[in-house]
Amino acid sequence: MSSTVNRMSMDKVTSLNKLSIKKRFRSQSQVLRQKVIYVYCPESRVEEIRSLAESYSFEIIINDYSINDLTRKVICHYESALLSIEHRNFLVSATEVGAWVEPLVSYLDARLGYTEVKLLASGYFLHQKAFSILSTKRTQIAKRVVDIVVALILLILTLPIALLTAILIKVESKGPIFYKQKRTGLYNEEFEVIKFRSMAQDAEASGAQWAKKNDSRVTKVGKFIRKTRIDELPQIINILRGEMSIVGPRPEREFFIENLEKEIPYYRFRHAVKPGITGLAQVCFPYGESLEDAIWKHKYDTYYIKHHSTSLDLKILLKTVKVVIFGMGR
Questions:
Q1: Beta bridge partners of 194
Q2: Which of 79, 112, 145 is the last residue of a domain?
Q3: Is 47 buried (19+), middle (13-18) or exposed (0-12) by CB count in 10 A?
Q4: Which stretch of 18-27, 154-163, 234-243, 286-295 has the lowest confidence by average pLDDT?
Q5: Which of 49, 119, 143, 232 ranks highest by number of CB atoms within 10 Å?
Q6: Among 112, 144, 168, where does a domain finish?
Q7: Using CA of residue 98, residue 104, residue 105, residue 109, what is the dihedral sign?
Q8: Gap between the Cα atoms of 306 and 259, Å rounded
Q9: What pLDDT is attached to residue 329?
Q10: Residue 262 in domain
Q11: What is the pLDDT of residue 87?
Q12: Rounded Cα gap, residues 283 and 192, in angstroms
């Protein structure tokens, strides 16, 4: 009798487990393909999220607590600490019936491939374990070793191109072959970035200004080397000095940073890592010349810092090669 009851209990548990598995998503890729997701947040943030969602390819339903069937639904929460106990319990119960429950920013990171910086709060950056590139010395040492090896290989392979570029710059226009400019790097420290000169010698006689897509200050040789990113080759020296990395957020001038940080949340967070010759923003977003463009690049840079990995660096390098070969740069 006892063994029969135990067997029946076990069968019931097994059957419930099977039911639970059927109710749940089979993989994260399935989660990221959902046409509708449900978001729960304080009422004060509804319009902001709704505004961002207008550009998404999927629908977002906000604060629908009347939904009965949560089976295999994607439930995202934002600023959940500000929700009532009843509403927080709703999120907990959603997990119990097979819903996928996740912070909104994390879900959007995975689905969009960039970070919605307008949704960030200081707590996002305080959880450094999520930022693998910042959390361990081993990660930083490994990245430095790769930087040195790749930089030396590039130095040897691109030397003929660099010599030819130097000659063409000298023949076409007056002025130095190299262009040096102060940029802000790791931990907000300034350094001199080295590039092949691509503009006329007096390009900034009237003061600092953003480079434009069809900038009249750019020389003929400069147009080609900017398009193919050849102008960045001298930054191999910056890498060997330890001022830059192969992959990372592009370094910006302090003059522009002071203006951008007034408009872009946590803009200086990019300085938590070394700047790079190429980066996720450079291969995913066209050359920028406005505040809106800078915001988009910051989205990709923040995503890169959080999700850094050797495989991500490799993907960025492969995409950079495409840019160089097909001239998809500036």
A1: 180
A2: 112
A3: exposed
A4: 18-27
A5: 232
A6: 112
A7: positive
A8: 24
A9: 57
A10: yes
A11: 95
A12: 24
Instruction: Share the mean pLDDT of the chain.
Output: 86
CA-only gyration radius of the chain, Å:
25
318-330: pLDDT as tens digits: 998 887 777 655 5
CA distance 209 to 78: 38
Q: Which residue shows structure tokens 């709060």?
A: 121
Residues making up the chain, counted from first to last: 330
With bands split at pLDDT 50, 70 and 90, how would you rate the model's confidence at 213?
low
Instruction: Mark whether 92 and 140 lie in a shared domain.
Output: no
Short-list 40, 43, 45, CA closest to 73: 40
Give residue 12's region: left, alpha or beta (phi > 0; psi -120 to 50): alpha
Our separate counts of H helices and E strands in the chain read: 15, 8
- Please enumerate in sequence order all residues whose Cβ is within 8 A of that of 275, keeping only pairs 6 or more positions apart, or say none: 183, 185, 186, 244, 245, 248, 249, 250, 251
* Bridge partner list, 179: 195
Would you give the DSSP letter of residue 134?
A: H
Query: Which of the pair, 135 or 115, is modelled with greater confidence?
Result: 115
- Asked whether residue 153 falls in the same domain as residue 103, the answer is no
Is the pTM of the predicted complex or chain greater than 0.90?
Answer: no
